[in-house]
Amino acid sequence: IKRVKDIEISVPIVYGTISFWLGKKADELHSHKWTVYVRSAANEDLCVVIKKVVFQLHPSFNNPTRVVEAAPFELNESGWGEFEIGITVFFHGDVGEKPLELFHHLKLYPVDESGPQSTKKPVVMEAYDEIVFNEPPEAFFARLRNY
Length: 147
Ligand code: SLL
What we know:
Layout: E1 8-21, E2 32-40, E3 50-56, E4 65-68, E5 73-79, E6 84-91, E7 100-105, E8 123-134, H1 138-146
Bound molecules: ligand SLL.
């Protein structure tokens, strides 16, 4: 495939988790509800580059491999424990890049556990990253320009 020389496309993303303690509604297996997400850090439409995102959960979940094939690229769940979530980002064919592997630690409990837990104050843990497409294929580059 032909690639565009001396061009670099950078797509800023934010990925992470937000979790809420369930308070009175908590039970042993479900003390928190949480969301894991991959979002644009620039209010762009990630569908232009991302085909699907696969979230790999802890084996204690039913069907721990979760595939999200459309925006928003996020997943809602509930549970009782923290663990490492695998996030694999698949790009459209014309992007010409292998999937991107990310890992994110699901955080349920606030770092400062001295105060009372609150159902209103979520625990957010996120990371910023930039996906860089170096010398993108011509087809992808043309598609981006026309978007
Ligand atoms: C721990 N290493 O032992 C961690 C594992 C797993 C959390 C935490 C399952 C919820 C469900 C769930 O929350 N697993 O089955 O619906 O602390």
